[in-house]
Amino acid sequence: MLSQSVSGAPHQSPVEASGNEVELTLEAGERWWGGAVGDGIRMPYGNAPFARNLGGPTDAQEEAGANQSSPLLVSTRGRVVWSERPFSFSFRDGTLRVSGQDVVVRRDGGNLREAYLSASRRYFPPSGRTPARELFTGPQYNTWIEMPYTPTQESVLRFAANILRTGMPPGVLMIDDAWSPDYGTWRFDPSRFPDPAAMVRQLHDQGFSVMLWVVPFISPDSATFREMEAKGLLIRDRTGDTAVRRWWNGFSALPDLTNPAAVDWITGQLDALRDETGVDGFKFDGGDAVNHRADDLTAEPAEPADHCEAWAALGLRYPFNEYRACWRMGGQPLAQRLRDKPPLWGEAGIASLVPELLAQSMIGHSFSCPDMIGGGEINSMNAQDTVDQEFFVRYAQIAALSPMMQFSVAPSRVLDEVHLAAVRAALDVRASLLPLILRLVDEAAVTGEPVLRPMAYHSPELDRVTDQFYLGPDLFVAPVTEKSAVERTVAVPGGRWHSDDGTVVTGPSVIKVRSSLTRIPRFTRLADA
Length: 529
Fold this sequence. Notes:
- By secondary structure, the chain is of the alpha/beta class.
- It has 14 helices and 25 strands.
- It is globular and about 65 Å long.
- The N and C termini lie far apart (58 Å).
- Residues 1-13 have low confidence and may be disordered.
């Protein structure tokens, strides 16, 4: 096994080190992004001890489901760490240690932006395509919180009618878990959806697109299981028996996505469902690496992360898509949602949104969504006696200036008029900036440049500011994430900036701004005189 150590001094060659064990001495002030999105609150790395094994589940993954991960680290001094396979890494005592297979360290510039764009071009080039436009242009509405495990044709139509009745715009409507008779049997349950094609036509007429929740699990006592097992389309465990694994809804078998016949079987079901009912696409949930074993028996050799990547690749044929768990796949036209969030202030909840959205950006996932507004983690949502209306508004404000925004809790059911008006104001801000968001989405598909960017991406001196973000190079946003806040501190980059309150501020500086319930502090760069 090759081991190599390098100092912090730049090399003439852009390749600084390679091998299975690599040590890097951190340069002065050097900070790093990448790895697992669930670690976003810890990014940028380098200022405190930290360790992660990208080949194993994180604590957050074990508790609340995986999110996106990639074998990539990029630094504020222009360095890139990459491998084609999962690796482990640690920061301690001024040293970055990486252990994996064929790890490569390159110097591709002198700052975070140059490092990221070089990595994007080399390792996950943009595809030239985006997910469906409708995922960005209107809000997304998911049935999950309003009708968990209980959607029916009647309740879905009522859900949509209430959205319109309360003055919310139509958008993409996602019918979540339990619309089908079994997992893996991807057709509507006729006892609850007697005429799904008519339902979809009505929703289309009202201005909604329609997506359906699916997972890579097969109910073990179903006709689908018997058929797929007989055809050799299911994963087997190391003993040769069909693997049945526990997941959040119980126990299920798993399709072998290394087998092209299994992929064809699944896409054949989904294509037929789309053709017969008119649904527009699918929310691809699950796919977590933790549900797989390194010694599983599959058609082609695969590690757990490979199964996660194969599930993501399956969605490329559907422009209307959404993923929560993903390995690699940066630069691809996939909508990537943050994992289910609890309705909490602080780092366990709302304060993690911006850091994790930025972490998505720094591993190549530009088409991001900060989970369901107000929280999407069902157990903690059900445990609430009442909804914290201020929290809901502040969450909506972050979502409004993200590439995508998604509701599940119906705002009109849980908000009074004051707070509902504040959510509508956030929607108005999004509408005013939608041309910019769409332009950045299109550019991301061609250049790889992310839509949301860490402050250090354009302002290297702000490498520790992770509760603000750039939306393109000329607008930065400083959302409010503290309960009962009447003001917040804003780090202003160099130059002159026009604030949303009409004032002009000059940076670099640190200022205090008022943060009324309806305000999303944001600043637009002014051209030099």
